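Dear support,

We are seeing what looks like truncated structure output for some complexes. This example has two components. We would appreciate it if you could run it in full and send us the complete token output so we can diff it against ours.
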Amino acid sequence: MDATHGSREHHDGECRDDGDGLAFVPGPIGPDGLRQIDAYWRAANYLSVGQIYLMANPLLREPLKPEHVKPRLLGHWGTTPGLNFIYAHLNRVIRERDLDMIAVWGPGHGAPGLVANAYLEGTYAETYPDVAHDLDGMARLFRQFSFPGGIPSHASPELPGSIHEGGELGYSLAHAFGAALDNPGLTVACVVGDGEAETGPLAAAWHGNKFLDPRSDGTVLPILHLNGYKIANPTVLARIPREELRSLLVGYGYEPTFVEGDEPAIMHQAMAAALDAAFDAITEIRIRARRGEAGRPRWPLVVLRSPKGWTGPGSVDGKPVEGTWRSHQVPVAAVRENPEHRAILERWMRSYRPEELFTPDGSLVPDLAALPPRGPRRLSANPHANAHRGAPLRLPELRRLAVTVPERGRTKAEATRALGVYLRDVLTLNAEARNFRIMGPDETASNRLDAVFEVTSRAWQEEILPEDDHLGRDGRVMEVLSEHLCEGWLEGYVLTGRHGLFATYEAFAHVIDSMVNQHAKWLKSARDLPWRRPVPSLNILLSSHVWRQDHNGFSHQDPGFIDFVANKRGDTARIYLPPDANCLLCVMDHCLRTYDRINVVVAGKQPALQWLDMDAAARHCAAGVGIWDWASNEGEAEPDVVMACAGDVPTQETLAAVDWLRRYVPELKVRVVNVVDLMTLPARETHPHGLDDPTFDSLFTRDRPVMFAYHGYPWLIHRMTYKRTNHGNFHVHGFIEEGTTTTPFDMCVLNRLDRYHLAQAALRAVPGLGARGEHAEEALRDALAAHRVHVCRAGDDLPEVKDWSWPDRHGDEHPDRRRIEADIMQCDTAGAEEPRPARTADDRACNA
Amino acid sequence: MDATHGSREHHDGECRDDGDGLAFVPGPIGPDGLRQIDAYWRAANYLSVGQIYLMANPLLREPLKPEHVKPRLLGHWGTTPGLNFIYAHLNRVIRERDLDMIAVWGPGHGAPGLVANAYLEGTYAETYPDVAHDLDGMARLFRQFSFPGGIPSHASPELPGSIHEGGELGYSLAHAFGAALDNPGLTVACVVGDGEAETGPLAAAWHGNKFLDPRSDGTVLPILHLNGYKIANPTVLARIPREELRSLLVGYGYEPTFVEGDEPAIMHQAMAAALDAAFDAITEIRIRARRGEAGRPRWPLVVLRSPKGWTGPGSVDGKPVEGTWRSHQVPVAAVRENPEHRAILERWMRSYRPEELFTPDGSLVPDLAALPPRGPRRLSANPHANAHRGAPLRLPELRRLAVTVPERGRTKAEATRALGVYLRDVLTLNAEARNFRIMGPDETASNRLDAVFEVTSRAWQEEILPEDDHLGRDGRVMEVLSEHLCEGWLEGYVLTGRHGLFATYEAFAHVIDSMVNQHAKWLKSARDLPWRRPVPSLNILLSSHVWRQDHNGFSHQDPGFIDFVANKRGDTARIYLPPDANCLLCVMDHCLRTYDRINVVVAGKQPALQWLDMDAAARHCAAGVGIWDWASNEGEAEPDVVMACAGDVPTQETLAAVDWLRRYVPELKVRVVNVVDLMTLPARETHPHGLDDPTFDSLFTRDRPVMFAYHGYPWLIHRMTYKRTNHGNFHVHGFIEEGTTTTPFDMCVLNRLDRYHLAQAALRAVPGLGARGEHAEEALRDALAAHRVHVCRAGDDLPEVKDWSWPDRHGDEHPDRRRIEADIMQCDTAGAEEPRPARTADDRACNA
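Here is the complete output from our reference environment:
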């Protein structure tokens, strides 16, 4: 159903409804109701304008003077009256149908309207008692908005009922779908601005309806708000022909209803009818689905086309304002300096007839106070928006799931496969609570987490064919080839108090840098608000990590997501690099118990040597960093060299290097330090996990060379440790990314050779190793060269590299020792060549 | 027109067309043509399978043995036969219509097919003579694929004709639109996989048709390839009802034609008919538009629905493979170990009847060799895909556009406004060449670049209303509220040799982290290929930067994009922080002359003090870093303290701090160092712009305290300088991001107070300043406190902060000096309070 569109000529500063009341128009709302809902809308609009402009004289009880106006005007009016209109109508259907509803407001910079509504509902004063329903409270409400010491100009965590700031556009609809999952009674109204609708993440998010089970999930009701303009440009969806827009929305799988126009009375009736029809349809879909009837739901969607800056000044300085891009921020700006502008503002505010809306002491007139929903039915007080379902997960007994490690470094396991079993049990233990989900861009099985499919499936509402692999209507694994959607869904899910894990490619985690950034900011701000409940942590597993991109290209090589997360301030970010399967289980078990954090865990899926049994892993992960005595041979004295490592592949390479060193130069005293929790490295002032300096020094020594094999770019280790005593002796071996005629496969080979480079670097860092040192270096060079030749010919690693394991005997007891000693005897070290650079252009020509 | 769908039962390893030829089906192609195009397709398929599997015996002239097969199988078959099918049909229309066409292949991991086609067209052998059309060449072609020393498994820069790697999914269509701009004769065929279609950037990119002028731009022909599955999941667009998909594509503004099925003969005719219809429609649209006829074009689009792994093994080990997710990578895997699998591979390869396609010596049979287009009409040799339009820009005379700076630091200008005038002239000078565009998310005017609208407008093909601001069909400014689209269009534009600038919010530049990452990788790889022409640089202007987010929230605060770019290897990244308008002009003028780089320029739009006239700016920017003698008072001796700065706001704060120090402690010897080019800071081994150590030390001294005021997060400066002699004395004051009850406006105030913090830090770092130092510190504390009180009350800075300018007299000549001396005489320093912490919780309560 489409409302008709009517518009009028405006004179400077004239406002729609300029004191002329509202003629009745027939529709679902009766005459009293119509008057009331319009009055409520006017009240919200009045309070919105007040926040943007005033620092005193809130009820205009005296003529407006320059000193009543804020010196800097920093709000956004354009979208606000439309949001207020929607809010009033959502209130109506909530009351009429006793709905459990939260709302996600994509245009979060319309916060003056959302704050106004929370104030009208009483929630604001309940939360912030000094912003009460009286003249002082109203003055404070106005003054605090975008003012020093006050509140930000977006729908930030400070706003009760908000789970979405809307500062960076694109994520409203994904958040809404995430919030609706596993909340079968809930409706999430999601207002999508036509600006935001141009973003990629939003354009993809419409397809969330393919993943929402009408039996066990809630409903998302998108309200596409076309106000025609972004900042200075028209919007795409507002300018394409209406039939094309309808076709687009039908193509996205919705049943759209259009509400279009600018005459309030007509629009109220049209909006009420549209929402009534939408909720009738939602009820019908739910009933049929829950009865078990087959059929694919077409969820309703409302398109609201209303003027930008609706009810604001029609024109200013002879230029049209209402309905144009000039309404975007502050429609009339020189209010302190220019009496005409001030008069426009005053006329505008008075056009809402505040004297009919508020009592002289600043409280709401009883008629209006009775209008909004009550208690937790209020959009600003719905407990879903404050993580009320935030109970801890039930977690399995770790010891039962331990990977058996009979001898350190001699058996292999796939870390993520073990994690899959653990996650399967997490799903089982919380099946009834329905508060745990796994998201990912179609990599759950490829990342070897497929044990989860023993107890659940992949969520899918479209047709299911016989050859499909574990698809199900109520699957708890959400797979879509969009990191934005996975991340956005998970954010919406945890912000409403549930738990989850997002598993994705390490290199492409950068796709969600900005989303993670915004979530970190939300968490940081929310944590400072005592009334905000803690939110389960956002857990990100980076598997298919950069060291094993055999199937892919240079494009798949980038360990920089860690750097990005490490830039986040203070207590929000955690980065874990478990060296083996049991450590991965311990780390994940910890992450799933935490709240208000962003936990990044990096763990490979390939078969890899296992180092720690579950007891040792638990102790090691609890400490976050530690000396691996069993791999070290330092004895009582300080070691000659510290071999440090962080990450599964670097750990394996380090131990292979240590094995080499201990075989070739058994008198060299080596200490092995493994880092699981990267945040132990920076100073404690910087991060709560940071080691104090004495502890750091006791691990990394004050003066011995440290070879640090690290999973990512080496700079991060330097920047975290540059203030440490021994930083001058840190040699960090990070990931090398390479392009051009070096296939990823090459890179894996080169990176796998890090054992030789690490051993080489250690030998060079320790003086006075004499003939043995020289012989060891020569042997290293030979091994490197032999490996390269083999790889270029055979397309695979040499068996001694591929199949290396930690020996059961070391030093002089190692079976190789006799041969090595004999070699040293024969070796004419004087004739040794200059060491050839580790990686040369020649290496690339091996296929020529 | 829709083809009918037919399918067959498969037995293990059986392949479609298993030697049984092709029955004629009527359609646009005659019997000979049908046989030929099918043979060409079979040849491409054969060569694709060969690349994935074989390292010897390329023409199967002996029975397949384990040692002919690569030890590791690392390609993607699933999408490849579909790409080969499309390629063959694009060749047909190119020849029949003599089309100028390039193709963007979204599923770039179908590279075996694209490499095969470049080989069939002869381009591959022309580019890499050792991969010739003979048995040796074919063996090399097979062996090199995803093999050490060979080529990556994606459509990487090594592939002639490629401008799009397709490793990270989402950007194909944006690249295609970018390439089509200002190339009125060009068609860019863009294959969109149904996996990629789920990503946000791709979902938004369909709307590129709203920005393409049919008169002066080329055409994008999207080919949506539905093969049904991603890795393990079905795809959304392949599973929704066909009518819903049609509605979606119509809603995106296209006229779709469906080609669906799996019987080759039927599919060839259907595809040929679809492409004929598409190019008839394109011709019609172009003619009508260029005749000046009104009307909104509906561009054609082809939907190809074909089985995943089409023509591959029907089933393996009793499980269906062709047409299922099992075809995604390697459909039959245990080929070396398992004779049955090996037999399946051999049967599969022989099903293409290689003996009919290749002569015994490995060259193409003449019939097929004659089939592809000739010379530059070949998709793999079209010069657009090698930046042939890459002529330098004509650039305006800088001096003519200089901002007048009569006295340093005493007049204000808006740096980006000056840049707008410069860009206007760039547009004018290159109007005829049509090789320069500006992209941005609706911020060109808001970023005060609006002088460009004197000579051009914003590109817009939809309806234009009277109140719209500078919209035009052929506008050279592209504004859409999607950083992904802006970045993707610009990448496509520069990769085809044209120039441009992307201006965007600093905080939200993280949205495109991953895209910039991929572009950097492309540039790095492409630069090593001598046959690849240089590509104009990707220029990114970060305005509305983090220091001035008065209108916005915590969400808008993040200077970390610089950190991200600084992580890119070697010679690709450049980061410039011009301190004023003339420096911005010099920097941008330089950037627009460069090739193969990613230039990031950070510059504010607010009125700010100007420091350098054009001559001085040119010298300063050429050096990248330098001592500002005119602001320093060090004389002959080494300074007591170095006040360094990088960024426009930090520079102003530093000079205000220096003014304070010189007023209060005139005997303190201060050196001011300004950094424009951030890449001068790291060591020369790390970046070619890095200063050598002696030069670095001559600027920053070997042992004096350095107060470094920096635009972004402080860690980056530390990580760039930790190896420098004097790093231990570096105190970096970076940007502070804060949330919760600290409005952005507060932050601007706090950040503006950095002048006091910098002065304070300098005083504390220099010992022995005695009573004067103590008095200066006290004065600083008082000034800070007074400012806070004023800001909380008035909502604006104190006038002496807001209106500060660089004085014309310094030290003892400064008019304040007499008062300060008198104060020192009176001051009872013994009674001074403990310094209060710079920023306390109290500051936040100022509105209470």
